[in-house]
Fold this sequence. Notes:
With 356 residues, the chain is of the alpha/beta class. 51% of the residues lie in helices and 13% in strands. The chain has 18 helices and eight strands. An eight-stranded parallel beta sheet has the order 1-2-3-4-5-6-7-8. Helix 12 links the parallel strand 6 and strand 7 (255-258). Helix 17 runs antiparallel to helix 18 (334-353). The relative contact order is 0.15. The model has no long low-confidence stretch (mean pLDDT 97). The structure holds adenine and zinc ion. Adenine binds next to helix 4. The record marks 235 as: Important for catalytic activity. It comes from Aulographum hederae CBS 113979. One of its GO terms (biological process) is adenine catabolic process. It is found in: Cytoplasm; Nucleus.
Amino acid sequence: MCKSPLHPLLHRLPKTEHHIHVEGALTPSLLFTLASRNNITLPPTDQDASFASQDALLARYQRFTSLDDFLHYYYVGMSVLIHAADYEALAWDYFTRAHADGVRHAEVFFDPQAHLSRGVAYATVLAGLTRAKERAKSEFGISVEFVCCFLRHLPVPDSVATFGLPEVRASFEDGRVIGIGLDSTEKDMPPSKWEEIYKAAGPLGVRRTAHAGEEGPAGYIAEAIDTLGCERIDHGLRLVEDPDLMKRVAEKGIMLTLCPISNVFLKCVKNMKEVPIRKLLDAGVKFSINSDDPAYFGGYILDNYCAVQDAFDLSVEEWQRICRTGIEGSWCGQARKNELLEELEKVVTDWKASGT
Ligand SMILES: Nc1ncnc2[nH]cnc12
Ligand SMILES: [Zn+2]
């Protein structure tokens, strides 16, 4: 719940979301509906009582102890996704919530290997996601791009084979997917292991980002930048542990896609005040604020903005700067950025004029 008087402004701000895993938008309600419709057996209650009901599952989410503890539920959850219509419903759920929160542009991650390994074709996943994207554009005016993530808990050759699939290549070539990312278990999984893919993606014009410095050390952020050529870093929470690297990230203008509620939920920090918002602002490091896996962490993008505000009491100008950074750091065309920058200017001017 927002406590700050700025919360109506936070609602109105035109938001860009750069760190949302579509599979992490699977609500317990849709999870149980699709499990039943698709005849998917969830873990029996004698093995994991968390699947006894939606409420039990939600209660279990409140007790996540780490990234890997969460990832177990994330992968079991997405096993209910089978048909293109399931992926469409999933993405539509997210776009509906994002629209209500004032998101104008969304760059959405998906994990092809987690679907291919269960026999769901890449074309099926992308067909459903693309239908929801078209609806989001026409009904809400949200611009959407998709980013395909590789799973770092699997052997690297699995990622290489996925990247090499003709249907995956085709989706980069025709622009249905504009970028690659690296996600899943971070501890002991240095990003440089995926160098082959990232080196091949650059010349194809594919945008590059990677999760780094969520649970892993700041050195993984340096690897993602220097070895993988990443233009953005997902999370990057532990950047503040290396002042020289922090200076370099600020100078290069590399944007972190922070996910504050996720970091608290997965025990990467003890509480919201430990998310280094103030340190990053003071050091001139660019960042956007995002939801990560909103259905699991109980917070969509506006909840994240409000939680940051309640912990850091930022000024209107600081919020304007955060939103401007997000717009400018988005992987959309300049014309779209200009529209959003204009809207941002208007919202802030109107807010100040209203004297609130
Ligand atoms: N927060 C996160 N970190 C790494 N991989 C993820 N996959 C989904 N959410 C993730
Ligand atoms: Zn993430």
